[in-house]
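Re: the 400-residue chain
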Amino acid sequence: MTKCSLIFVLFFIIFCCTTKAKIHSSQYLDREISPTLISQDDNADSNSLLMSRYKRFLLYRERRAAPSGQKKLKSYKFDLNDTTHNQALIHWSGKNSSVIFILTRKKKTVSGGGISDSSLWRSTNYGKTYEPEWKKFDNKTILNSYFVCPGNISKVIFIDTYNNCGRIWVSTTEGETYTPYMLSFSLDKIEFHPEEQDWLLGYDKQASVLYCSQDLGKTWSKLQSYVTTDRYFWYVKDVDTIENSTSIVHFEYRDMDVFPGRTFLVKSCFIPNCDPTPFQLHCDELGGIDRDSLVVQDNYTFAQKPGAREKLYVSFMRGKFVKADFPGNNEQTDFYVVSSNGGTVVVGINHIDWLAHLFFSDITGVKYSQSLSNVRYFGRKSGTETIFNVDIYEVMMMHC
C-alpha cells in the first residue's frame, strides 16, 4: 500500500526599499486588515474596475442547491450612485453577521489631502440591498474612517472630521443607532484592545499624540506626546503576565528633552496614567533606538540601535534586550520579522551592499543561522512608503 505524507513547502519572496533603519513585521502590517480600501487613485489603468467594485458592489453568497448537496454562487448588484467619490472602505465582519458597511468618500488628490465628503451605506441582507445612513448623522458629518471591535462586531466606531476637530460616532448595535462624542483633539486611528471590548488606543497623527479610553470612547486620557506613527502595541497575553497586565501598552516615542530632540525611546506603561511597568527598566537600559524600529510581537520585543553595524536588539519574554547574533560581517539596515510564533524567529535582513538574506533563530530570538542568501528583492507599498518586506507562502503538497 502506498503511503502518502503531507509536506509543507515554504516559498520565499523578499521585498525591499531604500529606507534605512526600520523594522517591519507580518503582524505589524496586518494589524489593520479591515475595512478594505478601494481607491480610484491606486492605478490609473484600473480606475474603471476599481470604481465599479463599489459603485455596483457585488457580493457572492454560497447557497445549498437541492438535493445534490452542491453549492452555487448567486450575485447581487446594487448601484450606490456616488459618482464624485474616489474611495470606498468596505467591511463585512463575517461571524454569521448579515451587515456590510461601505463608506464612500472624496479624498483630495493633493499629497496628504483630507476627506472633503463622504457617504455611509449599510446592508443588513449580505449586500443584496443597501440603505444610506445619512439620516442617522447630522448634516455637518464627514466620516473619515471606521473601526470594528474584533471581539464584538456589534461595536463600531466612526471617526468624523466635524469642523476640522474631533468627533466620533459609536454604535453598539452594528449600525442600528449611533451615539456622538465630541473630542478636544483629532483622531486618525483607533485600535481595540485584544480582550477588553471597551478599551481603545487612539492616535492623532498630526500631533503625534497617543490617547487611551476605557469606556468605548466616552472619555479619553493622554498617554504620551511625540509617539511614532503605528508604533504602539497592546499587551500580549501570556507574555505580559504581571498584575493588571491587560492595561499595559508598549510604544516608541521621541524624547524632546534631549537636544536636539532626535532620540527615540521605548516606553512600557499602564493605562490610563502611564505608570511604568517593570519592563521599563530594561527599556531604559536599552536607551535610544532608531525611529520606526519598535515591534512587539508574540514572545519578543524588537528594536534597532542607531549607528552600529549590527543593529537588532531582542527582548525575550520581557527580559533584558540582547544584541542579536548573526553570522557574517555585512552591515544591517532594515529588518522584516516574518514570523515569531513557532518557537523561532524568521527574519529577513536588508544589507547596505544591496544584499538580502533570510535567517532563523533559536527560541530566544538572539542566535541566528542563515537560511537563504542573495535573495532577489522587490519594493512593497504600504501607505505612503515603500518598505522592506519578506513574504513566506506555505503550500501544502501531496507526496506519495
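Residues 1-20, 42-66 have pLDDT under 50 and may be disordered.
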